[in-house]
């Protein structure tokens, strides 16, 4: 395939960025989107030009670092995949592809297509954990029975990889889906009840401090989420927050 790539280039966080056009040829449908960018960067390096910087790690759809806005969609035109799982067969010969970083005040651009998503880490640090005494007489598994439906819902919430697609998809740049997934995975389990009140209050407070917007109730976050995190988690977090604040 021959393609035209329009890519956001920005030298650093303080520099003024701009779109730059790159023609590329010889792209095969079985290539992943990141492999296509690798081909482009190899060409740029051979020409003595600065390669396009983008985030990646596992390239297996697990780490969430390959977050790109492709033709206006987080992770591109496919569903339930990350950018590294997106294949070039989703595009046609002669297509123009616009590639940008995720846009949100809480996700400042570092360089080119890389954004700073440590705001998510700070939300997680505010309450996304349980305190367990693991010293002494440890056991292989917890002996508290857990309802199967609750366990399944908790595991489903825990599949969130923190990529930020929900934020990029939301016109208010809301982090409600991410935060609610991290709240839900503990709210559904008995081990998470001890710190339930502090958890939801602290995580929601930190989410607001980071500058994320309010939920739009449009559902774009769930549609664009590569792991299909359900909007039900937002409803659950709202209930948890109401309960926590009612208790004073």
Automatic annotation (TrEMBL):
GO terms for biological process: aerobic respiration; respiratory electron transport chain. Gene3D superfamilies: 3.10.20.30, Alpha-helical ferredoxin. Its cofactor is [3Fe-4S] cluster; [2Fe-2S] cluster. Residues 151-181 form the 4Fe-4S ferredoxin-type domain. InterPro entries: 2Fe-2S_ferredoxin-like_sf, 2Fe-2S_ferredoxin-type, 2Fe2S_fd_BS, 4Fe4S_Fe-S-bd, Beta-grasp_dom_sf, Helical_ferredxn, SDH/FRD_Iron-Sulfur, Succ_DH/fum_Rdtase_N. Residues 1-103 form the 2Fe-2S ferredoxin-type domain. GO terms for molecular function: 2 iron, 2 sulfur cluster binding; electron transfer activity. Belongs to the succinate dehydrogenase/fumarate reductase iron-sulfur protein family. NCBIfam families: PRK07570.1. PANTHER family: SUCCINATE DEHYDROGENASE, SUCCINATE DEHYDROGENASE IRON-SULFUR PROTEIN. This is Succinate dehydrogenase / fumarate reductase iron-sulfur subunit. It comes from Leeuwenhoekiella polynyae.
């Amino acid at each position: 395939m021959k393609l035209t790539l329009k890519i956001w280039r920005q030298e650093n966080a303080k520099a003024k960025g701009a779109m730059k056009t790159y023609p590329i040829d010889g792209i095969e449908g079985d290539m992943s989107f990141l492999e296509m960018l690798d081909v482009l960067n190899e060409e740029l390096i051979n020409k003595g030009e600065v390669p396009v910087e983008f985030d990646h790690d596992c390239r297996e759809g697990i780490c969430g670092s390959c977050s790109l806005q492709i033709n206006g969609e987080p992770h591109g035109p496919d569903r339930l995949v990350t950018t590294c799982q997106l294949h070039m067969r989703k595009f046609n010969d002669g297509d123009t592809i616009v590639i940008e970083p995720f846009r949100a005040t809480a996700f400042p651009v570092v360089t080119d297509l890389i954004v700073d998503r440590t705001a998510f880490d700070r939300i997680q640090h505010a309450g996304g954990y349980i305190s367990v005494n693991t010293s002494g007489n440890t056991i292989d598994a917890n002996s508290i029975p857990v309802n199967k439906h609750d366990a399944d819902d908790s595991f489903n919430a825990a599949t969130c990889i923190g990529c930020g697609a929900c934020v990029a998809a939301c016109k208010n740049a809301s982090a409600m889906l991410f935060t609610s997934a991290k709240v839900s995975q503990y709210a559904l389990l008995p081990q998470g009840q001890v710190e339930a009140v502090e958890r939801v209050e602290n995580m929601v407070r930190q989410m607001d401090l980071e500058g994320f917007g309010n939920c739009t109730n449009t559902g774009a976050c769930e549609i664009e989420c590569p792991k299909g995190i359900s909007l039900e988690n937002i409803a659950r977090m709202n209930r948890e927050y109401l309960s926590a604040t009612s208790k004073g």
